[in-house]
C-alpha cells in the first residue's frame, strides 16, 4: 500500500506550474461523446479520474488515443453501447456525466449509481429533473438508472440548487435536442464556461454560460475540434495555501487569476502578501497569520473544494477562525484526521471552529477524500515529526504529480510503500 510521507519543511519557495483542471477535463471528456469527428484535447491532467472516464468512453465505443503528455485524441463517430459498467461507475461519481451525451447521441442510457468522494448524500435528482424536462423517461431501480426517449425536445428547467454536475449533464443532453432549452439558476463555475466553449467549438449553440441562465439551441449534429483545458483553480489554491501556511514565497503559474478571487481575498485577510498577474499569483506568507472566516458557496463564492485546505491553514492562524460549509452536508471528515495531529477544532453541524496557533504533531492519518488528503499534506508541512497520509488513492484521483510539485518548492515529501 502506498502512503505519502511529509516532514517539517520550512518555508516553501520557488515557482510551480498548475495543471489542467480535473473538473473541466471530466465533463469535456464526457462531452466528446457528442462529436462525430476527431477531437484533440490539450492540458488534460494525468489523473486516476481521467483514466477512468477514458475507460468509460472506450467501453461505449469511442476511440481514445494518448498523443503526448496531456494530449488526447478522441473519436466518438461510432458508439456501440449505451450501458456503463458498474466497475467503472462505482469508482467515480463524475462518470455519471456520460448520461447527458448518451441521451443526445443514442436517445438511451443505463447506468449504475455513481461512486466517488464520500462527502454527503450527493443525490442526482436535479440531473434527472432536467432530463425529464427534455422529454426523457427515467426509471430508477436500486443502484440502477435507465433513461430513454424517442426524441429529445428542448425544455425549461429551474435548478433548485445551482448544481455543477446537473448543469453540465443537462447542457450536454440539450445540445442535440430539438428546439431551445433554458436552464435557470444554473451553476456559474469556470468549468461550466469551459464546457460551453468546447461544445460551441463542436458546433453547438450555447449562450449565457457563466451567468445563472444558460440557453441552448439544439442542432442536429456536432463535429470535432481542438481545445485546451483551463487551469485547475483548486490545485492552484492548494499550492497558494502551501506558500501561506509555511510562511514561504511561492509563484503559482498557469492560473486564470480572476478564477481565484475568493482564495486570494481570504489569504489577503490572513495577512499574506499577494501579487496578482494575469496568469500567475505570487503568495508570500507572514510569520503571524491572522484568523479568518470562510463560508463555502457556489461560484463566485468561496469554493467548497478549498475548505479542507483552508482549515489546515487556520490551524496556524493566531486566534479563532471559522469555516461554514453550505454546499455539502458531510464535508468535515478531515477534521478528525487533523485532530489526530493535535489541531484544536470543533464542529457543530455545518460550522467548524478552529483555534489556531498551536503546534501540530505528525501522525498517521487518512485521506478521507480528495481535498482532505491535500489538507493533511499541508498540515504535515508545518507539523513536528513525520506525517504519514494513507488512502492516497483519493489524492491521486485529483492532483497530478503532487509530490513532485511540492518537492519542487522545497517540501520534504515522498511516496512510500508500506505493508498492509
Ligand atoms: C462538482 C465538482 C466537485 C465540487 C462540486 C461543488 C466535478 C467533477 N466535481 O461536483 O469537485 O465539490 O461541484 O463545487 O466537477 N445536489 C442535489 N441534487 C443533484 C445534484 C446535486 O441536491 O441532483 C446537491 C449536492 O448534494 C450538493 C450540491 O448540490 O450538496 C452541490 O453539488 P454539485 O454542484 O452537483 O457537485 P458535483 O457536480 O457533484
Distance between the termini: 6 Å
Structural class designation: alpha+beta
**General shape:** elongated
The unique ligands bound to this protein are: uridine-diphosphate-N-acetylglucosamine
**Count of individual helical segments:** 14
Instruction: Give the low-pLDDT segments.
Output: none
**Share of helix, binned:** 25-40%
Structure summarized in a few sentences:
The protein is of the alpha+beta class and 420 residues long. The chain is 31% helix and 25% strand. It has a four-stranded mixed β-sheet.
Descriptive report:
The protein is α+β, with helices and mostly antiparallel strands. The protein is built from 14 helices and 23 strands. The protein has helices at residues 22-31, 48-59, 86-89, 99-106, 125-133, 164-174, 190-202, 233-245, 261-269, 307-314, 333-340, 370-382, 393-398, 402-408; strands at residues 2-7, 13-17, 39-42, 63-68, 71-75, 108-112, 137-141, 144-148, 156-158, 180-184, 205-207, 213-217, 225-228, 249-253, 273-276, 280-284, 293-295, 320-324, 344-348, 351-355, 364-366, 387-390, 412-417. The strands form six sheets. The protein has a four-stranded mixed sheet. It has a four-stranded mixed sheet with strand order 2-14-16-15. Strand 11 (205-207) and strand 12 form a beta hairpin. Helix 4 packs parallel to helix 6 (164-174) and helix 10 packs parallel to helix 12 (370-382). The N and C termini lie close together (6 Å). The mean pLDDT is 95. Bound molecules: uridine-diphosphate-N-acetylglucosamine. Uridine-diphosphate-N-acetylglucosamine is lined by residues 23, 26, 93-94, 120, 122-127, 161, 163-166, 187, 191, 304-305, 327-328.
Amino acid at each position: 500500500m502506498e502512503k505519502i510521507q511529509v516532514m517539517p519543511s520550512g518555508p516553501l519557495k520557488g515557482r510551480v506550474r498548475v495543471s489542467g483542471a480535473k473538473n473541466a477535463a471530466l465533463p469535456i471528456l464526457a462531452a466528446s461523446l457528442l462529436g462525430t469527428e476527431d477531437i484533440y484535447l490539450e492540458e488534460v491532467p494525468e489523473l486516476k479520474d481521467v483514466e477512468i472516464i477514458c475507460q468509460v468512453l472506450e467501453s461505449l465505443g469511442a476511440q481514445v488515443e494518448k498523443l503526448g503528455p496531456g494530449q488526447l485524441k478522441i473519436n466518438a463517430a461510432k458508439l456501440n453501447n449505451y450501458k456503463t459498467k458498474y466497475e467503472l461507475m462505482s469508482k467515480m461519481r463524475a462518470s455519471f456525466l456520460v448520461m447527458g451525451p448518451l441521451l443526445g447521441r443514442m436517445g438511451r442510457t443505463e447506468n449504475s449509481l455513481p461512486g466517488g468522494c464520500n462527502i454527503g448524500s450527493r443525490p442526482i435528482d436535479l440531473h434527472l429533473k432536467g432530463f425529464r424536462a427534455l422529454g426523457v423517461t427515467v426509471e430508477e431501480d436500486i443502484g440502477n438508472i435507465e433513461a430513454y426517449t424517442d426524441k429529445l425536445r428542448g425544455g425549461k428547467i429551474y435548478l433548485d440548487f445551482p448544481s455543477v454536475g446537473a448543469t453540465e449533464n443537462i447542457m450536454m443532453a440539450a445540445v442535440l435536442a430539438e428546439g431551445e432549452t433554458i436552464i435557470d439558476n444554473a451553476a456559474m463555475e469556470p468549468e461550466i464556461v469551459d464546457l460551453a466553449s468546447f461544445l460551441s467549438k463542436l458546433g453547438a449553440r450555447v449562450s449565457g454560460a457563466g451567468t445563472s441562465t444558460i440557453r441552448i439551441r439544439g442542432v442536429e449534429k456536432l463535429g470535432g475540434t481542438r481545445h485546451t483545458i483551463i487551469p485547475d483553480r483548486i490545485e492552484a489554491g492548494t499550492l497558494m495555501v502551501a506558500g501561506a501556511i509555511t510562511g514561504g514565497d511561492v509563484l503559482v503559474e498557469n492560473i486564470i487569476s480572476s478564477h481565484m478571487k475568493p482564495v486570494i481575498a481570504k489569504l489577503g485577510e490572513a495577512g499574506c502578501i499577494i501579487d496578482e498577474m494575469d496568469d500567475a499569483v505570487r503568495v508570500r506568507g507572514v510569520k503571524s497569520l491572522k484568523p479568518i472566516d470562510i463560508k463555502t458557496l457556489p461560484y463566485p463564492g468561496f469554493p467548497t473544494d478549498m475548505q479542507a485546505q483552508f482549515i489546515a491553514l487556520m490551524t496556524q492562524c493566531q486566534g479563532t477562525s471559522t469555516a461554514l460549509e453550505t454546499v455539502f452536508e458531510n464535508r468535515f471528515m478531515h477534521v478528525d484526521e487533523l485532530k489526530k495531529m493535535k489541531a484544536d477544532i470543533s464542529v457543530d453541524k455545518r460550522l467548524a471552529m478552529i483555534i489556531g496557533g498551536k503546534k501540530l504533531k505528525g501522525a498517521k492519518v487518512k485521506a478521507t477524500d480528495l481535498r482532505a488528503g491535500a489538507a493533511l499534506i499541508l498540515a504535515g508541512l508545518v507539523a513536528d515529526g513525520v506525517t504519514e497520509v494513507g488512502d492516497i488513492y483519493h489524492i491521486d484521483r485529483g492532483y497530478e504529480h503532487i509530490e513532485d510539485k511540492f518537492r519542487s518548492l522545497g517540501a520534504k515529501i515522498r511516496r512510500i510503500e508500506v505493508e498492509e
